[in-house]
């Protein structure tokens, strides 16, 4: 019986994705290959040593990165180069030959770990653009295993992938995969159309290509959360205490906003939207608060200071203009909250404003919905450019670049009657249960192991349902 080798860049338990990987492997079993959890001191004497740990449900194989791999390859090439391109901001991208060498070097380290432990019938599941070179390296090492790569990030449109100086090397490696997975139909189509343009690929079906004699399959597999884990968070003492503190100390009309501290989170537009809301609806003064979460651990190191300073300035301006002696409209929190504490904040919030300028999925939106009290749920405001918008019928969909539209959506959300909030929440929760992390893993790994099982359309029925809702209310 074949096993699963899941490859990710870390297993830090404060990361929602790491929790998802843990829950998937706990149910399915397999081997999790990743770097050491604490990268504070990379490059130690034993940085190349593999550490295998046998677990009750699954095994782990970890190692430390060298300082160059961590600073140049990971923070340099991935965060400063690939991230802007994949998020439609090539103007922010910074590439250097040294960063690319270190990026390839840490991929080599992962490939060494995989080849040491892979059995002939294992399937290898690479997570995200961190491991684009790994597929060809694995083939060059002689592995014939089925290899799949899932893009958690949105795939760049048009010829934007070619803004990467080494795009031909990376593309050649992607063509060594058997299956590429994407969050949305749009992301998959971006890849397919680019392949046809750049390589004159032969389209065999809506989701399959033949390029240079190799057949590669694609598919749409929106990543979900573990709703059982969300239920466990609700029942924790830390969650209940945090929720109680928020309800006692904050206004009933509490908004929550979060996300990575990066250039595509859209946080400045949300702060501007709050200023518009208070100017157009002065009755909210003293009766509404936005909790703006911006943990320093959630962003990219090279941009954190500048972005944090800009956000602090915006929040200070809004608080200065609209604040009172005993009330401020924005609470800007840098604290790195534990998952249980975040759950309490989410449950206490009447509205979640999740409006990234672009995002592969936006798991914060899903966690917010999963943590709500079904008897008295809050309302989700979601960017039309988040991958989750393709699934989450029941959210208020907005243009994240339009503060007036966001302000209108907040005003609408705060006035929705209970029955309407319950109806929206029920639809959202149904989608979360249907497309949870286990369904995501099951579909991807089933298609990776048995390509003949893939639907010809390549689009899940849930995706078609989401597409059919395109006429729902937008602001």
From TrEMBL:
GO terms for biological process: trehalose biosynthetic process. It comes from the Bacteria. Coiled coil: none annotated. GO terms for molecular function: alpha,alpha-trehalose-phosphate synthase (UDP-forming) activity. Keywords: Plasmid. The keyword rRNA processing does not apply. Belongs to the glycosyltransferase 20 family. PANTHER family: BCDNA.GH08860, TREHALOSE-6-PHOSPHATE SYNTHASE. This is Trehalose-6-phosphate synthase.
């Amino acid at each position: 019986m074949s096993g699963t080798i899941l490859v990710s860049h870390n297993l830090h338990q404060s990361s929602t994705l790491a929790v998802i990987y843990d829950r998937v492997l706990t149910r399915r079993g397999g081997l999790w290959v990743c770097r050491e959890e604490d990268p504070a001191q990379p490059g130690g004497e034993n940085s190349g040593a593999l550490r295998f740990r046998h677990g009750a449900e699954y095994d782990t194989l970890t190692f430390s990165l060298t300082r160059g791999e961590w600073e140049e390859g990971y923070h340099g090439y991935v965060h400063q180069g690939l991230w802007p391109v994949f998020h439609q901001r090539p103007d922010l991208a910074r590439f250097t030959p040294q960063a690319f060498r270190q990026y390839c070097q840490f991929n080599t380290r992962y490939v060494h770990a995989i080849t040491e432990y892979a059995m002939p019938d294992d399937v290898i599941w690479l997570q995200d653009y961190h491991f684009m070179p790994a597929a060809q390296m694995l083939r060059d090492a002689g592995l014939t295993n089925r290899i799949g790569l899932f893009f958690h990030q949105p795939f760049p449109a048009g010829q934007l992938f070619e803004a990467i100086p080494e795009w031909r090397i990376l593309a050649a490696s992607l063509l060594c995969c058997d299956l590429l997975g994407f969050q949305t139909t749009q992301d998959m189509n971006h890849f397919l159309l680019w392949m046809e343009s750049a390589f004159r690929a032969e389209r065999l079906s809506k989701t399959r290509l033949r390029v240079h004699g190799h057949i590669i399959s694609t598919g749409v597999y929106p990543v979900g959360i573990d709703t059982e884990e969300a239920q466990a968070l609700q029942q924790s003492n830390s969650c209940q205490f945090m929720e109680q503190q928020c309800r006692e100390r904050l206004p009933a009309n509490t908004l929550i906003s979060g996300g990575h501290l990066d250039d595509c989170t859209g946080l400045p537009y949300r702060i501007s939207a709050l200023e518009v809301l208070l100017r157009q609806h002065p009755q909210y003064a003293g009766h509404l608060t936005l909790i703006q979460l911006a943990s320093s651990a959630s962003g990219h190191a090279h941009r954190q200071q500048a972005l944090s300073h800009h956000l602090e300035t915006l929040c200070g301006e809004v608080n200065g203009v609209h604040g009172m002696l005993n009330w401020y409209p924005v609470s800007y929190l840098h604290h790195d909250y534990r998952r249980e504490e975040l759950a309490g904040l989410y449950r206490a919030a009447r509205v979640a404003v999740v409006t990234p300028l672009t995002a592969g999925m936006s798991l914060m939106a899903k966690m917010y919905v999963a943590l709500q009290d079904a008897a008295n749920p809050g309302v989700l405001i979601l960017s039309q450019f988040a991958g989750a918008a393709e699934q989450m019928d029941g959210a208020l969909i907005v243009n994240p670049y339009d503060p007036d539209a966001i302000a209108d959506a907040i005003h609408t959300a705060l006035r929705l009657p209970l029955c309407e909030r319950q109806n929206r929440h029920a639809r959202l929760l149904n989608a979360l249960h249907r497309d949870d992390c286990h369904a995501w893993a099951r579909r991807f790994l089933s298609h990776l192991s048995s390509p003949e099982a893939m639907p010809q359309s390549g689009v899940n029925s849930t995706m078609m349902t989401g597409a059919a809702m395109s006429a729902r209310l937008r602001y």
